[in-house]
Each structure stands twice: as structure tokens, then as C-alpha cells.
Amino acid sequence: MRIADADATRRHLGYAELIEALRAMFVAGCEVPQRHVHTIAGADANAARGTVLIMPAWRAGRYFGLKTVMIFPGNGTRGLPGLHSTYLLYDAATGQPLAQLDGDEITTRRTAAAAALAADYLARRDARRLLVVGAGRVAAQIPAAMRAVRPISEVVVWNHRRACAERLAASLRLAGMPARAGDDLAVEVAAADIVSCATLSNTPLIEGRWLRQGTHLDLIGSFTPAMHEADAHCFARAKVFVDIPEALTKSGDLLDAIAANTFAAAALQGTLADLCAGRCAGRRSDDEITLFKAVGTALEDLAAAELVYEGLADRG
Predict the structure, then answer these.
(1) Which of 49, 149, 198, 214 could form a disulfide with 120 if both were Cys (CB 3.0 to 4.6 A apart)?
(2) Cα diameter, the chain
(3) In this structure, is residue 189 part of a structural domain?
(4) In what order do the strands lie in the sheet with 270-271?
């Protein structure tokens, strides 16, 4: 069985290739059972709780993948990432273990790549100004992923801890991207072409009244009914797309909008698979506000894992 650490996994997940691998997988499809979600209680009443996700996916006769994800939002106060994961890949025809891959790299890069894939259909072709809300592992990858599909020439990073936004902006500048930390979220949202949220927030951050015509809003951080990144008014103003149909029952943002009667499930424009297969139209005009809500799917993990494994095999 091959073992790929973070560096080895990352080397085979360039964004241009990964975005195309996701596009192909969304068209071809694979078996994706309901994920298992469990809560891990803290050591005492005052300790933060964690969540474990168990996410399988497979293609008959080809590959079977299993990802285990540990989410601890309180890790930020410890100077640790809020998410850790591992990925195991098997031969789906024999059950033989093939590889253990770095799950954090798989998760981080496929999440950013899926957002960029959606933006390829939903953001304006001339979108140049990107606002990243959040400063964690996924947020750090969004600019590179978006640059694979749009001519991004300015990146603004906003985080509730300004020091974290400044650190990420500095890191992006070292990588050759013009980036700065933003102060006033409302002002930065109103000026952005693409607003991409990658947080673990439990309270809405983006207000619908801030969005200007032509903006693409990308919500990829929240993935449970208790998590929120945008208020209900965002959904009233936008044409809404999701990564998978289950987002309608898993996303706190969508559930709140439905409860507030600012959005109805019947108004959903389509899924990422619909966009990739041409079953629905994406952006129709430069004046539309578009919104992509993602909760993540093991289909994306499998596409990324196959890309890594076959890249490792090619190198012998």
C-alpha cells in the first residue's frame, strides 16, 4: 500500500487538473452513501465538542475511498486547525488497500477546487476582485483555485481576527498574489466580484443588502444546520445553486432562508452536477447575483484521491 504524506498528496493536486477531474466526476457520477455524522463530547461541561464525519464513495470495479474527518471548531484558540482528516483508497474490485493519502490536503484542495468549478459557471467572466472571508486552511487555497478559472488580480482577506487576515494576506503576497487584509466587511463585500466564505461560523457574516449586482457569493465553510455564513436576504436576491441536493437539508444557511420565506426549494436553479452536465444554465447576465452553497461530498474526495493515486503510480 502506498502512503502519501501532505507534500506528496499536494504535488498531484494542481488546481487546473483537479478542477477538470471534479468536472468529469460530477458528469460520470459515483456511489455516495449518506455520510455518518457523530458528535464527540468534550472532556467536561466547559470543553468544546467535536464532530466526526465518515464519508465513503466508490466506482464499481475501480476505486473505493473512505474519508474520516475530525472537526473541532475550538482548535483556533489552541493554535491548531479546526479540521483533521485521513483518506484510504481501495481497489473496488478486490478490496485490496491501495493507498493512504493525506486527508487534510484532499479535503482542503477539493473544497477550494469545487468552489472554483462552480465559479467557472456562475461568476462573471471578467471577475477580478476576490474577497475571501476566513483565514484558515481552506480560505488560504481559494485564491489559487479561483485564479485557475478567472483573471483574479486583487485579493482581500477578511477575518474576525484581523491578525489572522494579515498573516494570510502576507502569505498570499509571498506567493505572488496582490493581497491585503480588509477592515470593513460590508465595504469589501460591496466592492467584490466574488465573495468566498470559508469559515466555521455559527452566526451569519454576509448580509444580502451588501451585495451589488453581478456579484457571485460562494458559501463553502458551513456544512451543518447549526452553521451559518450568510443571512436569509442573500438567498432572496440571488439565483441559488448547490453542490448536492442534500444541501437543502444540511445547510443552516439554506434552512434559515427557507424558514424565513426568502427562499424555497423549488427555486433552486440546479446542482454542480447539473451545471457540469449542461442540464441547467449558470450565469445568464452580468447583472445577476449568483450564490453557490456547498456542504461537501465524498464524490469530490474520490476524484481527488484517484488523481493522486494515479499520479503516484505514473511515477513508479
Answers:
(1) 149
(2) 56
(3) yes
(4) 179-181, 154-158, 129-133, 194-197, 216-219, 290-293, 239-242, 270-271
Q: What is the pLDDT of residues 244-301, one digit of tens each?
A: 999 999 899 999 999 999 999 999 999 999 999 999 999 999 999 999 999 999 999 9
Query: Contact, 47 vs 73, CB < 8 A?
Result: no
Q: Judge whether 26 lies within some domain.
A: yes
**What is the number of domains present in the chain?**
2
The answer to whether residues 146 and 271 belong to one domain is: yes
Mark residue 261 as left, alpha or beta (left: phi above 0; alpha: psi -120 to 50; beta: remaining): left
Q: What is the pTM of this model?
A: 0.92
Q: What is the pLDDT of residues 11-47, one digit of tens each?
A: 999 999 999 999 999 999 999 998 888 988 876 666 6
Contact of 165 with 135, CB cutoff 8 Å = yes
Residue with cell 467557472: 120
Which among 159, 118, 154 has a CA at the least distance from the CA of 136?
A: 159
